[in-house]
Design brief:
The protein has six helices and no strands. With about 120 residues, the protein is an all-alpha fold. The chain folds into two domains: about 55 residues, Orthogonal Bundle (Arc Repressor Mutant, subunit A), CATH 1.10.10; about 40 residues. The longest helix has 12 residues.
Length: about 120
């Protein structure tokens, strides 16, 4: 049995509408109303409004200096995941840049142990 969706008071629905139109994030509105974030996103979907708040940190990967640093790190054997974590951006952004530069991913599976033959 699927649990019932939480009921929102009309004042809460209005607060969600006003918050979204003001550019607040779903999480920020949820904290203010002491509700779960998914409750706010469901209400926003019903209202037909999307949050205009920026999501995550956008890293501009068109800066030539930054591109050369990333290229050097990929060529040195660092994984996309490690590079992305150190730059606080998404792994997919690094992957897309590498693809644009014609570089392949450096996959490493398991630890650094030697495999006995």
């Amino acid at each position: 049995m699927i649990p019932a969706e939480p009921r929102l008071f009309p004042e809460e629905v209005e607060a969600i509408r006003i918050g979204l139109l003001a550019g607040e994030s779903y999480a920020g509105i949820a904290r203010k109303l002491d509700r779960d974030r998914t409750t706010v996103t469901r209400c926003a979907r019903r209202l037909g409004i999307k949050s205009k708040a920026p999501r995550g940190r956008r890293v501009e990967l068109s800066d030539p200096t930054l591109v050369s640093v990333i290229r050097a790190r990929i060529e040195a054997g660092q994984s996309f995941h490690k590079i992305a974590a150190s730059m606080a951006c998404d792994t997919k952004a690094i992957s897309n840049l590498a693809k644009r530069l014609g570089l392949k991913a450096n996959y490493s599976f398991g630890g650094s142990r030697e495999i006995a033959a």
